[in-house]
Amino acid sequence: MSDIVIVSPHPDDEIISSFEILTNSKDYSNVIVVYTAVINETRKKEALNLKIYTNVKHQFFNRSIPPLLLNKENIFYFPDPVYETHPVHRLQGSIGEQLLRNGFNVIFYSINMQAPYCHEVVDPIKKETLLNKVYPSQKSMWTQDAKYYLFEGRCKWLM
Description:
alpha/beta
């Protein structure tokens, strides 16, 4: 059985981009979140809360994807290298693009919400609630801008 690996440059990107995956992935043995940016202790502790509220079984805090996870059977979710504007997101997206070109199963997501493949979340209240429970230090971000819990999007590239 394959694992889902969500590459999250920053804690909270995994929920903002992949809430539907995190809460509806019962057919996979593990959902693994790999945080690739340097984070402070508060955000690191908050990210560990994700295990309490979802079926995430493992999390790795690393600058890159642990070699153990580089399995072509896994499904990888990376930031979109085209629509993302944050430099760290674009960098991780370019790594995802390289993996895709090497035969890995990669799906791209956007935090930017300007990507043409974004859609409305089926249960935005549930998503906002999860964001508030896991990342209380970031609450003002989505209180000021509902796009973080109203929309998300993923895109499979054809190669």
